[in-house]
Description:
By secondary structure, the protein is mostly helical. It contains 9 helices and 2 strands; from the N terminus they run αααββαααααα. The protein has a two-stranded antiparallel ribbon with strand order 1-2. Forms an energy-coupling factor (ECF) transporter complex composed of an ATP-binding protein (A component, CbiO), a transmembrane protein (T component, CbiQ) and 2 possible substrate-capture proteins (S components, CbiM and CbiN) of unknown stoichimetry. Keywords: Cell membrane, Cobalamin biosynthesis, Cobalt, Cobalt transport, Ion transport, Membrane, Signal, Transmembrane, Transmembrane helix, Transport.
Amino acid sequence: MSKKEMWVVAASLAVAICFGVAPAANAMHIMEGYLPLSLCIFWGVIAVPFIVWGFFSIRKIANNNRRTMPLLAMAGAFIFVISSLKIPSVTGSCSHMTGTGLGALLFGPAAVAVLGIIVLLFQAILLAHGGLTTIGANCFSMAIAGPFVSYGLYKLGEKLHWNKKVNIFIACTLGDLFTYCVTSFQMAWAHHSNVGFAKAMVTNMAIYAATQVPLAIIEGLISVVIIIALENYATDEMKSLGFIEA
């Protein structure tokens, strides 16, 4: 079996594993019906340009670095699986890792917007994780805001000559946490009439902090381990992406 065939088999296995995750509707993505229609449209409209940009980015990757496409598929499968693993938060809601930081470092944040919208569609339809009306808001927080922060922090770390592994850890960890800051903002904006926007946002962030901070740290560590593995076992693909010097 060739290396590319092994990547395809591994990606298929990852997708299959995700169906073994308990599909409870008690999920962290903003659920169906939680946001008013006006905000559903607002976040959807904001997300569209990034998704279009992402399609062009993926087309460029396919044309210039076709050998990296199995790796792109695995990045999408990784997001699907890791964001489907949910743990209870302190109020009965759930928290989960995002997995988008890793894809942003490898392929850029625009491509992750497309991977994210695909993942969110499958999760909303198959796992009752999130919702179709709230998919714009969920896409913006998980597949746009978080990845762009991860990518920006990683590039900043490169310019400051940080240790590569430390740089990956910080970028993926803080990208995950920023996703939940945006989610808290979205939820507070939608429902703050009784307590005020600032208090609602602080409350939401405090709720998620108990579970999300350790999850973000775990995601950062997992991302470092995966990058190390890819550098050892997918060296040619990583060179094609410019992640390893040729």
